[in-house]
Amino acid sequence: MAPRATPEQSEILRRIGLRAGEEVRFRRADRGRWQEGHISWVERDGSITVHDAHGAARSLRPERLEVKRPGRRGRLAWRSVPDVAGRERLSEDQGRIGDDEDRGQGWAPVDPAERAASTCATTAAGSSTS
Question: In what order do the strands lie in the sheet with 23-27?
Fold first, then answer.
């Protein structure tokens, strides 16, 4: 039985779109076929600890792992972990657009009228100084 991830490790996994115990596949350097295992936690160096079917632990770089995710039509397909992490981060960021806490940090939506007014003011200021 594989050791359980701490809440902090589970949070790190969640941030990159993964879950402890989730099924992954990987290729060992000396073999060409895919092997399946389960995610345990993230190491300090950024590698992900995976336990294979026999319980052996391996720390692998995220780019060497694939997880199952729904494709365009909803069918599960193997996707690389960096690709999944990028999509999860993007969707998390899109959910934050317009939040009050993010105003002033480039996340707040801009009203087109305000944008036009600021552009006109900048253009007028620039032409009067030349």
Answer: 57-60, 48-52, 34-42, 23-27, 65-70, 76-80
Ramachandran category for residue 10: left, alpha or beta (phi over 0 → left; psi -120 to 50 → alpha)? alpha
Q: Do 38 and 50 touch, CB atoms closer than 8 A? A: yes
Cβ proximity of 20 and 39 under 8 Å: yes
**Angstrom distance (rounded) from CA 61 to CA 20:** 16
Across the chain, which has 130 residues, the per-10-residue mean pLDDT values are 73 89 89 90 91 92 93 92 74 43 39 50 50
- Whether the Cβ atoms of residue 66 and residue 59 lie closer than 8 Å to each other: no
Other C-beta atoms within 10 Å of 24: how many? 24
Q: What is the pLDDT of residue 24?
A: 95
Place of tokens 């692998």: 60
Q: How far is CA 32 from CA 14, 25, 26, 128, in A?
A: 30, 12, 10, 68
Range list of H helices, the chain: 7-15, 81-96, 112-128
Q: How far apart are CA 50 and CA 42, in angstroms?
A: 9
